[in-house]
Amino acid sequence: MRAEIAILGGGCAGLSLAHALATADSARAVVVVERRTQYDEDRTWCGWAIEPHAFASCVRRRWDRWRVSTAEAQHEIAAGTIAYESVGAGAFYATALASVDASPAVTLLAGAAVADVAELDACSVVTLNDGRRIEAQWVIDTLPRRRELTYPWMWQSFVGFELEAPEAGAGDVPDLMDFRVPQADGVTFLYVIPFARDRALFELTRFAPQRTPKRELERALRVELALRFPRGYRIVRREHADLPMSPADRRVAGRRIPAGIAGGAMRPATGFAFHAIQRWASRCAADLVAGRSPHAAAMHPGLLWMDRVFMSVVRDDPQHAPELYARLFARTSPDALVRFLAGAPRVSDVADVAGALPIGRFTRAAARSIVA
Fold first, then answer.
1. Is residue 73 over pLDDT 60?
2. Are 34 and 100 contained in the same domain?
3. Which has the closest alpha carbon to 250: 264, 234, 233?
4. Does residue 372 carry a pLDDT above 70?
5. Which of 29, 50, 155, 291 is the most exposed place for a label (fewest CB within 10 A)?
6. Would you say 117 and 125 are in contact if contact means Cβ atoms under 8 Å apart?
7. pLDDT of res. 248
8. 71 inside domain
9. Within a 10 A sphere around the Cβ of 275, how many other Cβ atoms?
């Protein structure tokens, strides 16, 4: 099989790029290789759309307020000009797959796994586990791979239940970080996204040097939910993931372009990725349609250094992490913080964020980072 573009992995990044190429009405032949044969409502992606994106019709809810809570105080923040939004995986998958199905140039190979990728003089060759081969000019690799993290990076492990219960979504304000839960190794918080008065997503999240076992997080989440809903609740669906809060673990190698979380789409200090993936997919598709080398996700070295310093402070002193996150949200202007978290800050935004944090602690961490 020949194609100009082979996309390895049909998850968020792979389907976002495939959708962008399909809707561009390009004649360039694209093949998407995806292991699964069925797509489920397995994710909820949230964040701030600092630019318009192709999946605006898939936005389930938007909010003009959000909250961060510690044992000492609750901080409810009013949005500036950028709302917080939630995108359901089911609607995203349906939209992307419909555009792929409608495009004569894009083919989805479902139930296929990649066995090998080799780069030859004239093309790259992707070999599938059933022996089929795809010869492609460009390979966009979104596949995850098992990895170990080095200091100061940490794993973000979470278990989530979307549930129905009386007053589950009362107040209609997302809790981005509620630290009023028992702390273990690392930093633990509850993340709550209200969808209706009686329906919300509750995720128990932990930042730690090692992955937290799913069973441990689920047990702790059930304890919290039992306290909140003594009369019971009904689980509608479940989520779970272990996300590496670290820089990209792959580099551009010839015609093989890393993408998605493995390619650096996720901001190491926050875990937000969906909207960064949309910005990358739009620009990468434009490059490919125009015949240019495809766009790889890239994070400014200065921002990466700031993330390294911030994560070293959180990892070295996790008991003070709730205070740091609360200060960050409460003392920074909303739009400046949103642009910073999205990886596209102005110079004034960086200064605003830096001014919200304890200068002594971060100066010492920055000095250690420079020496290291």
1. yes
2. yes
3. 264
4. no
5. 291
6. yes
7. 82
8. no
9. 24
Residue pointed to by tokens 């020496």: 371
Please provide the average confidence, as pLDDT, over all residues in the chain: 94
Q: HEC string of the chain?
A: CEEEEEEECCCHHHHHHHHHHHHCCCCCCEEEEECCCCCCCCCEEEEECCCCCCCHHHEEEEECEEEEECCCCEEEEECCCCCEEEEEHHHHHHHHHHHHHHCCCEEEEECCCEEEEEECCCCEEEEECCCCEEEEEEEEECCCCCCCCCCCCEEEEEEEEEEECCCCCCCCCCEEEECCCCCCCCEEEEEEEEEECCEEEEEEEEEECCCCCHHHHHHHHHHHHHHHCCCCCEEEEEEEEEEEECCCCCCCECCEEECCHHHCCCCCCCCCCHHHHHHHHHHHHHHHHCCCCCCCCCCCHHHHHHHHHHHHHHHHCHHHHHHHHHHHHHHCCHHHHHHHHCCCCCHHHHHHHHHHCCHHHHHHHHHHHHHC
Asked if 170 and 227 sit in the same domain, the reply is yes
Q: Is the pLDDT of residue 249 over 80?
A: no
Per-residue pLDDT band for 55 (boundaries 50, 70, 90) equals very high
Are 251 and 108 part of one and the same domain? Answer: yes
Domain assignment present for residue 81? The answer is: no
Instruction: Read off the pLDDT of each residue in 132-143 and give the average, rounded to a whole number.
Output: 96
Whether the per-residue pLDDT at 37 is higher than 60: the answer is yes
Q: What is the largest CA-CA distance in the chain?
A: 66
> For residue 189, what is the domain's CATH number?
3.30.70
